[in-house]
């Protein structure tokens, strides 16, 4: 069972972008996240080893990591996860590991977990971190499968498009329409915005100009609005097109944009305010939501964007919308939710 676990574990972690390094001293898996280097080491635990031997072995192991790995890779912090495996004597080994402290302020973090193959459980001693780059989820899924429990597998991160032509095309289209608006009198002028198809509640609800819900997502009010949205479109749209494919990218983009427009007009109706609005923000928040959903489904970073980073972006973006006037947060939220739901189900 131990060999089966090791093989499956190495395979799963390499799917999560860990680099495997095997050798006579054990199995090492490495992954660099920004300025942090993570080292996962599988160790066959000996229940007959006393505490003093355990401490000596730990110090020798740490010195080996410093000399052969950490010194050759640019990183500000080293996180070493020691995974002790045993098929017998798990309680005795766990008791020894429970005496190990964890010191988060140091340059090197040494963390010890026990994989008890006799009981098919992951045992994390007190005061030790319990979550590290989805490693705990991988271990638990393998152990559950060995015990016959139903396990939901990770969805692999598969590239569906070799280019981002649709994303670049939308960026170019936004720029061309903005220049035409400037030539027509200025992209910030109300009359120009209405002429080119901006959202206005009265014209949509009472005059049946529903096409504005679609055309408004290609208009931008001022050059900074255009630059910010096109930059965001490049960041998130390129990832959606790359990993969902071109058809699904357009579906997510357009439906999220329409949802944003409908949300904006609906809020205007509720507040009895004839709001004039335009922009690709709903569609772009939809792309952000779909990228966030993909990160959740695959348990991986999406081209260096982690779910944590995207979560911060979402919170900060929506907070800015509530703090500053003239930002259509209803469109942002409607687009975000639509993109997320589509991303989870496509």
Give a description of the structure.
The protein has 346 residues and is α/β, with parallel strands linked by helices. The protein folds into two domains: 145 residues, no CATH class; 181 residues, Rhomboid-like fold (Up-down Bundle). The protein contains 13 helices and eight strands. Strands 1-2-3-4-5-6 form a six-stranded mixed sheet, sandwiched between helices. Strand 2 and strand 3 form a beta hairpin. Helix 9 crosses helix 10, helix 11 packs antiparallel against helix 12 and helix 11 runs parallel beside helix 13. The chain is elongated. The relative contact order is 0.09. The mean pLDDT is 85.
Q: Gist?
A:
Helix content is 54%, strand content 14%. With 346 residues, it is of the alpha/beta class. It has two domains: 2-146, no CATH class; 165-345, Rhomboid-like fold (Up-down Bundle).
Give the CATH level 1 class of the largest domain: Mainly Alpha
Q: Please state the CA-atom Rg, rounded to the nearest Å.
A: 26 Å
Give the helix level as a range of percent: 40-55%
CATH architecture of the largest domain: Up-down Bundle
Q: Spatial order of the strands in the main sheet?
A: 1-2-3-4-5-6
What is the N-to-C succession of helices and strands? HEEEHEHEEHHHEHHHHEHHH
How many β strands by DSSP?
A: 8
Decide which structural class fits the backbone: alpha/beta
Strand content: 5-15%
Biggest sheet layout:
6 strands, mixed
């Amino acid at each position: 069972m131990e060999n089966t676990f090791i093989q499956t574990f190495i395979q799963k972690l390499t799917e999560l972008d860990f680099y495997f390094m095997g050798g006579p001293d054990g199995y090492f898996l490495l992954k660099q996240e920004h300025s942090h280097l993570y080292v996962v080491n599988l160790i066959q635990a000996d229940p007959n080893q006393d505490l003093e031997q355990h401490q000596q072995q730990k110090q020798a192991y740490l010195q080996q990591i410093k000399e052969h790995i950490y010194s050759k890779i640019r990183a500000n912090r080293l996180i070493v996860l020691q995974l002790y495996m045993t098929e017998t004597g798990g309680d005795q080994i766990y008791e020894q590991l429970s005496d190990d402290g964890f010191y988060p302020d140091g340059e090197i973090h040494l963390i010890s977990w026990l994989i008890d193959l006799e009981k098919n459980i992951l045992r994390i001693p007190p005061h030790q971190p319990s979550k590290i780059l989805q490693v705990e989820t991988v271990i638990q899924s393998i152990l559950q499968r060995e015990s016959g429990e139903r396990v939901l597998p990770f969805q692999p991160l598969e590239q569906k498009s070799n280019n981002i032509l649709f994303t670049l095309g939308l960026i170019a289209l936004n720029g061309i329409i903005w220049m035409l608006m400037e030539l027509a009198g200025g992209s910030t002028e109300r009359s120009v915005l209405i002429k080119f198809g901006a959202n206005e509640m009265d014209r949509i609800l009472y005059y049946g100009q529903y096409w504005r819900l679609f055309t408004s997502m290609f208009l931008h009010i001022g050059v900074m609005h255009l630059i910010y949205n096109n930059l965001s479109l490049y960041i998130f749209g390129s990832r959606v097109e790359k990993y969902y494919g071109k058809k699904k990218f357009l579906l997510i983009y357009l439906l999220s944009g329409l949802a944003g427009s409908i949300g904006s007009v609906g809020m205007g109706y509720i507040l009895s305010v004839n709001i004039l609005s335009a922009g690709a923000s709903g569609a772009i928040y939809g792309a952000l939501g779909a990228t966030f959903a993909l990160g959740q489904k695959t348990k991986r970073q999406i081209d260096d964007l982690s779910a944590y980073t995207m979560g911060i972006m979402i919170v900060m973006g929506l907070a800015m919308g509530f703090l500053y006037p003239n930002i259509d947060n209803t469109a942002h939220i409607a687009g975000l939710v639509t993109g997320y739901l589509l991303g989870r189900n496509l």
